[in-house]
Each structure stands twice: as structure tokens, then as C-alpha cells.
Target: Sec-independent protein translocase protein TatC
Amino acid sequence: MSFWGHITELRGHMIRSLIAIVVCAIVVGFNVNWIMDNIFFGPTRNDFYTFRVVNHFSRELIGHDSITLPGNFAVQQKKLFEQFNVMMAVSIFGGIVAAFPYLIWELWRFISPALHPKERKNSVFVINFIWILFLLGILCGYFLILPFAINFSLLFKVSDTIVQLFDLTDYTTLFMQIVLGMGVVFLFPVLVYFTTSLGILTPKFMRTYRRHAIVLIMVVAAIITPADVLSMMMAALPLLLLYEFSILMCAYTFKKVEKRTLEEQRITPQ
Model:
């Protein structure tokens, strides 16, 4: 293919991906009332799954619940069309999450013709690995970090005379920031895989600069979470585990690259 041929091919994949997002967003939009009540505002209620698990173990250890949220989570609308804008944001966000496996499949369809049969076989694993990591990050942000961030914001009070009223846009921003942020950050092992395959990154480099990486992880955790220390630590813990996993992946990929390089040197005539 010529350059413009590749551009035309890429445009087709992008159009199909956009259509998939729109279709999924429409499906989410038609069910937005249920999604808002049960998923979007789910972490604001005491019967949320994370709180039930924590309170179960808390009752076993100390005899009473350790997390009890206020019965009424008051969210106010301050601007015209704010609910409509939030509905659109939730629909688009849900459409992207639901269509993400298909988006990755379209990406694989675009790059697979340029791969050798062995590379194409390995790329199937990588493509599946990408969307699985992204969804794991989404679930981690939704079930692990967001509930504790909301718990901290609801229970922290400097005076009983202050009435807690939460802005709908602020809550939406917090939701997207944590959930989508964790989904993107969880793609870090994929970046490690490709940079190692290209010979840019080595496991020795990752182990040598582990302390620097920990500092960077804490900075990233502080960016994608609110200002409280608890939420930051809850976000940093899975990211630290992800970094250690990335070191193992880097070492495995580095050995494969070295082995392939040696085989190519043997095959190449002197």
C-alpha cells in the first residue's frame, strides 16, 4: 500500500470504531436512569459492595461496622442543562468502556497485515491483554479507590454546622478522574512490553530506578485521586504491584528479544 492507502485503511477502522462507541453510548443513554442510580451513585450508599465486604470483616474483627455513610447523599444542580451534560458524559464514557475491546480489535486488524505469522500469533495475546488491563483498571478505580474517596469526603467534618451539599459536575469529574485514570494507568505494562521489544527498556533499568518509580507512582496517585492521603495510598498500592509485574514482564520479554537476536545472527551469513 501507498501512504495514502494506509491512511484510507486507517480511516475505515476509525469510522467503524467511532460507530461502535456511538452505538454503545446510545445503549447506555437509553438505560441512563438505572445506570445513574445503581452504578454512578452506587459508591455513595451503604449497601455498595465494597462497603459490605469491609463491614463484614470489620464485624468479625471489632464487632461493629467501620464504614457507615450518611443516609442521604445530597447532590445539587447549579446550572441549566447540567443534568443533560452529565448524562451525555456518562453515556460517552460508558460507550467507550463497553466498546473498548472492539476498538482494540480494530487496531489489531489494522496492524496485523504488516506482521509475520509468528508475530501475528503473539499479537493476539497482547491485544487481549490490553483490554483486560484497561477493564481491570476501571474495576479497581470503581470498587477500590472511588468508594474510599467518597467515604473520606462524607465523613470528614470540621464543624457540625456545615451542611454537606455536593455539586453534580464535581462528583462527575471525580468519578471520571478516578475510574478512567486508573484504566489508563493500568496500561503501563503494555508500554513496558513494547519499549522492551524495541530494545529501549531493560529489566536492569527498571530495577535500578525502582525508588524513582515509586516517587513517580505516588505523584500519579495524587493526580488521579482527591487530596486525601487514604485515597492516594489506595491508588498507589495497585500501581506498585503493577510496576513489579511490569518488571517481570520486561525480564521475560527481554530474554525473548535476546534469543531472537542470537538466532538472527546465526542465520545471517558472515
In short: The longest helix spans residues 117-155. The chain has a mean pLDDT of 85.
